[in-house]
Amino acid sequence: MNSPPPLPSALFQSLLTKLAAVLELTQKPDGTTTPQAKQALLQATNDFKNALNRAKECANTLPGGDLLIEEQDEVIDMLERLREHKRLQLAQFATGTSTSDASAKMEVDSTASTPISS
Known about the structure:
Layout (H helix, E strand, L loop, with lengths): L8 H18 L8 H26 L8 H27 L23
């Protein structure tokens, strides 16, 4: 089973910095009256928009992202029940007890693990 690539956390962390840069440029006392200030604001805004679009793409490609919240909750509940069932099975295995029929024993086929002699 292929696991999805990890989320680029640096991309998400950079969003706040890029937004702060845009806000800082818009709050300067001289504003965006000079061509250099307008260019700097345009560049900072474009950087923020591009990073935001990449972050949205990453978030939209997460597995299960196409599910509704209720469906995601159902999957989570099912996985938690499965995990608890597996924990119970492991605990029973560790103690040597079984909830199934006591006569059901695991049989080992000794010939299955024996190499063929020539």
